[in-house]
Amino acid sequence: MKNYGRLTLPTDLDVIDQTIALKEKLGADAIRDCDGTEMPKELLDLDAKVYATYYTTRKDNDWALANPEEIQQEYLITDRYTAKTSSLTITLMKGFHTEQLKPNFIDDPHIWWEVIDRTTGEIVPTTCWTYSEDNGSVTIQTIPYHIYTVSFLAFLIWDPVHMYNFITNDWKDAPHQLTFDVRQPKTQVFVKEKLKKFCEDNPHVDVIRFTTFFHQFTLTFDDQKREKFVEWFGYSASVSPYILKQFEKWAGYKFRPEFIVDQGYHNSLFRVPSREFKDFINFQQQEVCKLAKELVDIVHSYGKEAMMFLGDHWIGTEPYGPYFETIGLDAVVGSVGDGVTMRMISDIKGVKYTEGRLLPYFFPDVFCEGGDPIGEAHTNWLKARRAILRSPLDRIGYGGYLKLALEWPGFIDTITHVVNEFRDIHDTIQGTSAYVSPFKVAILNCWGSSRRWMNNQVHHAIWYREIYSYVGIIECLSGMPIDIDFINFDDIKDGVLDQYKVVINAGSAYTSWSGAINWIDEVVVTKLRQWVDQGGGFIGVGEPTAYQYQGQFFQLSDVLGVDKEIGFTLSHDKYNEVNSHHFLLEDIDGHIDFGEGMNGIYAHGENYQILNQHHGYAQLVTNTYGKGRSIYFAGLPYSPQNCRLLLRAIYWAAGKEDEMKKYYVSNVNTEVASFESVGKIAVINNTTEALCTDLYVSGNKVETLNLSPMELRWITI
């Protein structure tokens, strides 16, 4: 049956008949429960796979209360406080939510906590500070007018995801769920036995969907129940004295809180990772994947599939880490916020299938007065679809409260179109891959392939002013006909550059994405200069190659043809003129969106061409360097026009302009994906407006297409 399969629907006790009807209408072949819902017994005999959401770390407060030392823990850091006398008392939980977190006084604070003089960066000896469990404070012998922080362990006495759902969905009566640490000895045995019993008691369940395994990404709330610190990739909540003792034995050196709370920062993905932090990540991934495999083996022993949710407690199971495939999972499912997060899921290897939860979730923060779930569904599908044509998910689905979706006028019709189009893509391409550029492009940053499709993100597709100008690059690339790799600076030293025609470096100065101190590594810069000089292409966005050193800010300013004025060269006059006639701009009409842009960028050298500038500062510059080429963008947010601009930039930087129109469409709001093996070309309209576009094959115009809003049109080659 054509319009059947590849779809998972949520259900609940209050929508039994409606679930049956919608399953038939949409051709769903799987049903699931969600956090806060239950699987109706009346649906267990349906012709559909049954997914059971399974929690290894919560939903058993009796166990957590009986074993308080094995509750999950997190490293926190206090605010900075200035000492004005020779003594300073810091209240540990000031600004944190005391219903979520509680300082750990069970394990000796003098062993596991750290007081830092942030004026000097020195550790305050344990003989110079005391703690009070009764007052929840630390008193420090201080140097007047120095600044101090305390890094301390705290128990997660309310699971962060449960707290988030409690707040978002306005739960009133549900008890706060404690979160326990499955890595701990007693809890580990308990969780394994509990999983066996669940499998035995639920023979109707086909798929155990782990949410996820053991360590929550960092999600910390303030004293007003607002999100205080969110790090979707963070390891702050994967610590305990038990785990850290194991790490010390493995690594051969003592663990410090400063590896997690780095120079007073929570050690986010934006920080250039220290050797010790990378060691800790490596250790955690080894141990988490090894234990996760034991749980997956239990599931398999009962003839069930094991699925991992890429979110919540996923730390240590990163799918692009070196140990992920050893877990033996059948599937990974995750939330599809855009094309980037779609690719983050669909590119995963080592599983039998991948599944995406399309947005919006059926939650009351969207399905409410003033909400626009249909608009969100359209936007989500337009971004996801272009990436699906490049790297298809095997399945899609939705989550949340089905009743909300059923009661919203027109919403079911909207997702019916999405589901049918998703199946149509699979039916047409028949497992084949779309044409990509005849050369490879590398994204260069400190994380490389371990953080594939995760560049510059704070919190899984959430918009931030400081990052959208950079995230736009990988969002564009997620649906473009480009063969992409993600590399780090060690890869450069190891000689990988010969595999690529173009390297892209994008991000804010001193972040892991731009590269920071790596740009004064002699081996890195000389290898890149030589590679460009011999014909490579380099694209920099924002503050690429940035590190103030030896009279320049962009360390590859000679390659880029630009540098940034930071106040040290104001005495040098700069005579820059715009010449906007260039291959890059042939399709581009009107204003170019550079996002937040960048002040102070000026061109220099003899081979640059400024294509766009604002208030005297360059925004888009091309440069030639020996046989190679470079392009500088002040920023590149996602938009259909910027996707086209980036496509042209990549082909020009590669010196392959003549090959760009192998498969091509003239209107920047459209894109094309060619599946040569099945003789089909997909032309997509990435807007909600009707439009016209010309289709080119091998450089020749073959057809003019009039496309309906959001249309996907199949053309036979």
TrEMBL record:
Please list the residue ranges annotated as the Lacto-N-biose phosphorylase central domain. Answer: 440-658
Q: Which InterPro entries match?
A: Class_I_gatase-like (IPR029062), Glyco_hydro_b (IPR013780), Ig-like_fold (IPR013783), Lact_bio_phlase-like_N (IPR035080), Lacto-N-biose_phosphorylase (IPR012711), LBP_C (IPR035356), LBP_M (IPR035363)
Give the range the annotation lists for the signal sequence.
none
List each copy of the Lacto-N-biose phosphorylase-like N-terminal TIM barrel domain by range: 5-436
| Gene Ontology MF annotations | 1,4-alpha-oligoglucan phosphorylase activity
Domain Lacto-N-biose phosphorylase C-terminal residue range list: 663-715
Q: Which domain of life is it from?
A: Bacteria
Protein's recorded name: 1,3-beta-galactosyl-N-acetylhexosamine phosphorylase
